[in-house]
């Protein structure tokens, strides 16, 4: 069993996939901690979240400021910025 930490994915699902392939990630064997900022800036925040859900337990995440911004915007507590790339979520 291996333990990995990855930070600031920021919606870059294809890069995350390549990184998981590079380390030989196995959901049945390994654990990856995603250290915040899973969403925003990159092209596919929704795919990053879907990947996390698909590997529930093996991919564990901490919330970063971009993740908290998404939650606040989704619940009307904060206005989305024109620079946000959260529409897919």
Describe this protein's structure:
- The protein is α/β, with parallel strands linked by helices.
- It has one domain: Purple Acid Phosphatase, chain A, domain 2, CATH 3.60.21.40.
- It contains three helices and three strands; from the N terminus they run βαβαβα.
- Strands 1-2-3 form a three-stranded parallel beta sheet.
- The longest helix has 10 residues.
- The mean pLDDT is 93.
Radius of gyration: 13 Å
Number of helices: 3
Given helix and strand content, the structural type is alpha/beta
Main sheet: strands, sense, barrel: 3 strands, parallel
Uncertain segments are: none
Q: State the CATH architecture.
A: 4-Layer Sandwich
């Amino acid at each position: 069993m291996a333990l990995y930490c990855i930070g600031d994915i920021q919606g870059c699902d294809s890069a995350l996939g390549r990184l998981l392939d590079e380390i030989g990630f196995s959901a049945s064997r390994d654990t990856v901690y995603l250290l915040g900022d899973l969403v925003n800036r990159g092209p596919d925040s929704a795919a990053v979240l879907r990947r996390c859900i698909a590997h529930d337990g093996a991919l564990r995440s901490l919330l970063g400021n971009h993740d908290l911004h998404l939650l606040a915007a989704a619940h009307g507590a904060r206005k989305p910025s024109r620079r946000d790339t959260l529409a897919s979520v």
